[in-house]
Structure formats: C-alpha cells, structure tokens
C-alpha cells in the first residue's frame, strides 16, 4: 500500500440520507470496505428496512434524524458512538433539489433547500468534529455537485447551496488540516436517482449511477483527495472557466444542452419526489 493510501477498514461511518439512492450505494460500499455504518435518514422506516436488508454485509444500524435539527443530529451521533464506536467518517449526503425559474420559486422552497443542503451539512460537521479533533483523526466527505462549480439554470438555489458546500468544505479543511482531520467533496453530474425525475438530459456526459458516486467517496477516503468529479470528465467544469473566455465555455454548455435540462421539468414525474419534502412544510 502506497504512502498516499489510508486504511478505512474497521472505521465507523455515518451516512446521511443513507436509505436510498447515492446514500444507500455509499452505505453498501463502506460496508464492503469493512466499516461499521450508521444510516441517518429523515425516513426512519426506510432507514430501518435498508439496515435490515444489509445486515449480512456488515455492522449497520439506522437512526431517524432530520439534518436540519442540530440538537437532534448531535444526540444521534452520541447514540451512534454508544452502539458502534467513535465516528471516524462522516458522509454528508442528504440533499434535495427543487426546480424552477428564480422569480417563480416560493421562498419556503428556497429556505427548505438551504436548510437541508447547507445547514444540514454544517450540523453534521459540528456534530462529529469535536470528537474527531480530540482524537486528531477523522474524515468528512460532503456531497456537492457540478452545479456547485457552475451556476445551473432553473436550479439557482440548489446550485447556490452546492457552491456553499464546496466553500464550507474548502475553508474548514484549511482550518483543521494540521489537526489530523481530512475533508473532501464529491461533485456528481446527473445521477440516476429520484432527484432528477422528470428532467431533461444533456447530450454529454451520460447519467452516472449511484454506485459511481459511492466509489468516488471511497476513493476520497482512501487517498485523501480533496475534490472528485463523477464522471471524472466533469473536472473540466472547473478547468474551462479558467482557460476559456466566458462566451466560449457558455457556448459549450449550450451545445451540450446544459442550459435547458431543467427548464421544462415534468411536474407530475417529480411529484412523488417533491411531496416527500414539501407536504409537511
């Protein structure tokens, strides 16, 4: 094993939004790597059934938590550590995407996205970091998005929230990099989950699978790499704005259809997804 590789086997990982989609794929990947895994999800029933289905793959347990509730998040981490041991890995995966033109978006929908996508990440980090600092060891991986690198039309608040995730991760990394803590963020493009139900697709690249994002999380944990893109080609989204005039890289985006993929989302196809978050708000 090279000196740039880290051992994660035997660790205790917490995955938010771990009951479905990218979260579940990440839980499975970490179990396969020999971690004990805590599934945290707002949907407690699904979290419990997911944990039960994965028992044969390793130590896994589930807790119901709304990541917007900082106190509940902190208490949940205490419960996780009492059952599984000290948390060595946090994957802040929980997030939502509500689409629409900026002027047509309801303020409540904007606030909901910011509370889950930004405050949820901060709540998770603040819940596990004190213990990690005491032990001078730990790794936090935040799931961002390519939309956090380039502004994405008809997903302005989602895009802004993911810009925030990247900024928070980068800044906190610099604050704690000499104290034994590591931080990474993963930027997927479109992933085949319920989050993109009813939306358009760009001409390139193809839609990724949740397992590919989970693989990037594991790679971050093993190598300490700070920023990863899924698929890897999408790193170009970070490079092109520095190399090309704005008019040129925006023309590339239009050619690929990035500017239109969320412009006419099918509301009926997105109803089940949206109602999970907005029905009780």
Could you explain the architecture of this structure?
With 281 residues, this protein is an alpha/beta fold. The protein has one domain (12-278): NAD(P)-binding Rossmann-like Domain (Rossmann fold), CATH 3.40.50.720. The protein contains nine helices and seven strands; from the N terminus they run βαβαβαβαβαβαβααα. The chain has a seven-stranded parallel beta sheet, with helices on both faces. Strand 5 (138-143), helix 5 (156-176) and strand 6 (181-188) form a beta-alpha-beta unit.
Defining key terms:
281 residues; alpha/beta; Rossmann fold; 7 strands
Describe the structure concisely.
This protein has nine helices and seven strands; from the N terminus they run βαβαβαβαβαβαβααα.
Strand-residue fraction?
5-15%
Question: Which fold does the CATH topology refer to?
Answer: Rossmann fold
Query: In the CATH hierarchy, what is the class?
Result: Alpha Beta
In total, how many beta strands? Answer: 7
Give the N-terminus to C-terminus distance in angstroms: 49 Å
CATH architecture classification name: 3-Layer(aba) Sandwich
The structural domain count equals: 1
Mean of pLDDT: 95
Q: Helical amount among residues, as a percent range? A: 40-55%
- Order of strands across the widest beta sheet? 3-2-1-4-5-6-7
Taking pLDDT < 50 over at least 5 consecutive residues as the criterion, the unreliable ranges are none
């Amino acid at each position: 094993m090279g000196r740039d590789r880290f051992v994660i086997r035997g660790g205790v990982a917490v995955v938010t939004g771990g009951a479905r989609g990218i979260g579940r794929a990440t839980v499975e990947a970490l179990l396969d790597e020999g971690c004990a895994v805590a599934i945290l999800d707002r949907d407690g029933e699904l979290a419990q059934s997911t944990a039960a289905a994965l028992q044969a793959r390793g130590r896994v347990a589930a807790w119901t938590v709304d990541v917007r509730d900082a106190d509940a998040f902190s208490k949940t981490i205490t419960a996780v550590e009492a059952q599984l041991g000290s948390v060595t890995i946090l994957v802040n995966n929980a997030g939502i995407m509500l689409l629409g033109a900026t002027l047509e978006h309801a303020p409540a929908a904007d606030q909901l996205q910011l509370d889950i996508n930004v405050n949820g990440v901060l709540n998770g980090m603040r819940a596990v970091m004190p213990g990690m600092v005491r032990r001078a060891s730990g790794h936090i991986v935040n799931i961002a998005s390519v939309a956090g690198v380039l502004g994405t039309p008809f997903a302005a608040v989602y895009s802004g929230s993911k810009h925030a995730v990247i900024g928070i991760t980068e800044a906190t990394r610099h604050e704690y990099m000499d104290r034994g803590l590591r931080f990474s963020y993963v930027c997927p493009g479109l992933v085949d989950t319920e989050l993109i139900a009813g939306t358009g697709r760009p001409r390139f690249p193809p839609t990724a699978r949740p397992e590919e994002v989970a693989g990037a999380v594991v790679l971050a944990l093993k190598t300490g790499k700070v920023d990863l893109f899924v698929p890897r080609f999408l790193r170009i989204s970070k490079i092109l704005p520095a190399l090309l005039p704005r008019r040129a890289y925006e023309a590339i985006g239009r050619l690929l259809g990035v500017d239109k993929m969320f412009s006419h989302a099918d509301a009926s196809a997105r109803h089940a997804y949206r109602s999970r978050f907005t029905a009780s708000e």
